[in-house]
């Protein structure tokens, strides 16, 4: 870190995440780019350990703002209002960033004024590991679902022009809504194809708690927040709807065909089962006949004589041939 005025302000809301925040802060301190400030917003934490930690938290270029619980949007807005850097990077208190993230992201905003959002490849850690699967950014496809994770670099001036994070996104997706607001400013998006952001997966996160009703309300709220943007690209929505209907129809047809094939296979299996049952009865009948024949032969006088002759040969030491062995 540096004593110079910060170029980047890292905004870190924290609600009961004291057990993770040290790891998040250290990942920012380890940045190869300076100067950077970190603003932690204690968003009304109720966890004793988190409250105790943040009450006396002191590190170079790190400040803590304490507020009543207002949610992520209000917490970020509060932190950005006090930010001294011209670039903003939100980092959740339980996540972390790679050491060269700012070194590679800041020059893009410095040299390309048309770019408004810079983000990189991401990985998951914690309760789940692997790549952070988001589709590659495309416009206007982003109108149908978010493609940019929350820890992305942008200009504070664009935050001001966009009106900040919208606090009416009560079920989440405040980042998604904010990206659309920046896109409405005419900005482009730049993707760094390198893992520079690490998102911690935790049990019972906000996204995991969202119900179908919450999804509908969130999409509705986003549309209401950006009506002109959606109106200008309404064709994209209907195109996706038509394609989705076609895909659903195709899947339905495949399911119907599979059901018919399954029914035919079941009929064939039933026929084979009947043939096997009939063959089993025939084998049983043959076995019964053979048993009757063997019993008849073994009780005949000739059979008894043959057995006595075989016994006598054995007693006399005469070699028993294969034919004799069959009746032993």
Quick overview:
The chain is built from 12 helices and 9 strands.
What does this structure look like?
This protein has 328 residues and is an alpha/beta fold. The chain has a domain at 8-232: Spore Coat Polysaccharide Biosynthesis Protein SpsA, Chain A, CATH 3.90.550. It has helices spanning 18-29, 48-55, 72-81, 101-111, 156-162, 174-183, 206-209, 212-225, 227-232, 234-298, 301-316, 322-325; strands spanning 8-14, 36-43, 62-67, 87-90, 96-97, 115-126, 130-131, 154-155, 188-201. The strands form two sheets. A five-stranded mixed sheet has the order 3-2-1-4-8, sandwiched between helices. The chain has a four-stranded mixed sheet with strand order 5-9-6-7, with helices on both faces. It is elongated and about 120 Å long. The model has no long low-confidence stretch (mean pLDDT 88).
